[in-house]
Amino acid sequence: MLSVLKNRTYRHLFLAQVIALVGTGLATVALGLLAFDLAGAQAGAVLGTALAIKMAAYIGVAPVAAAFAEHLPRKAMLVTLDLVRAAVALLLPFVTEIWQVYVLIFVLQSASAAFTPTFQATIPDILPDEREYTRALSLSRLAYDLESVISPMLAALLLTVVSFHSLFAGTVVGFLVSAAMVATVVLPAAIRGPKRSIYERTTKGMRIFLRTPRLRGLLALNLTVAAASAMVIVNTVVLVQSRFGLPQSSTAMALMAFGAGSMIVALALPRLLERLDDRKAMLAGGAVLVVGLLLGTFVNSYWSLVGLWVALGAGYSLAQTPSGRILRRSSTSQDRPALFAAQFALSHACWLITYPLAGWLGASVSLTASFIGLTLVAAMAWILSKQIWRPEYDEEVVAHSHVDLPENHPHVAEGKAHAHTFVIDDDHPKWPGC
């Protein structure tokens, strides 16, 4: 897996990602503690609302940013967005009112909504080989998981000597170092497609996504993933500190358990995906999430919660990590940034549903009700994904005909009926048989 780091450009981008993630992880722990400090037992509702605002920023900003990204230098764009995120993180320790949390979260996550899809869409251009890209995906997932382990552990250690407000300083440093690392490499220029209107460029990724059967199935599976991760992110602090009466460091350790489960699966994925197709692996991960949420209704101790979080982390990684491979083989290189932005926006639309649901059910009814509600959402989405993403719609080479194209069109030079690797584009606006 580590052989992919021989590529200097990817190595620098990967290090930038890792450093920014550690800083973001510290902010995640600190934000939960800040919400608890401002709202007490109602922290789940406050955190759920803050994260819903984050999702709204992702949904609204990502497609618009993608529409302009192909006309802007990638490196300058990524560095600038890192600096914006660092500036906002610098203000978070001075928050004294809940509404201030909401405003700063919106600005911070708007910058992330422009940064992340652009960053993700750059990697396939740097690593065109399928095996190397698969290793990069697993390494990226491992980075997220190590962050889930290291950041809470680091936070737990820091909380013994400083207040949680000081954790935000780590976020600032992370974004500044990330900007410096991106600035040290030359990134491939985005491939410009035909001239289109702003509306066409903004909606292009969404149209490709919703017209590709495997991607519609991925969207449904995203909702299963969002249901499980929302329960972990929103309600861990309430479960640990309100239900079990444990200190802040125990909250950090519980979040670490989720990351550890995900990390174990990420390490095994490159070999697993050589023997198992993406669809089967991702649906298996979704099934683990559904069962795990259901078992959450029986959690009655801190250590049973830790064990459950490990299992949910494993299911999360199995269902989520291969999605980059699905996006890559469902698009041309020029449409890839728009498609990654669409995945970013649509997957976060799922969290926009599940974050407030997790928070408000937990605060207004009970944590058991939150587990039950999210189990139902996850199960229905998983069933829908399995029905939409059928094996016959997962083939790469698809036989089809072009009755709509004229005889002299270059694409039908060898006949209007043919077979090739099929993706939705200008010559293929609709999936055959759908």
TrEMBL record:
Cell compartments where the protein resides: Cell membrane
Q: Which UniProt keywords apply?
A: Cell membrane, Membrane, Transmembrane, Transmembrane helix, Transport
* Stored InterPro entries: MFS, MFS_dom, MFS_trans_sf
List, alphabetically, the Pfam families matched: MFS_1
Q: Which residues cross the membrane?
A: 12-36, 42-69, 168-191, 217-240, 252-269, 281-299, 305-327, 339-358, 364-384
Transmembrane helix among keywords: yes
Which cellular components does GO assign to this protein?
plasma membrane
Topology with respect to the bilayer: Multi-pass membrane protein
Sequence ranges assigned to domain Major facilitator superfamily (MFS) profile in this UniProt record: 9-393
Where does this chain mainly localize?
Answer: membrane
Which GO molecular-function terms appear in the entry?
transmembrane transporter activity
Q: Which domain of life is it from?
A: Bacteria
**Name this polypeptide is given:** MFS transporter
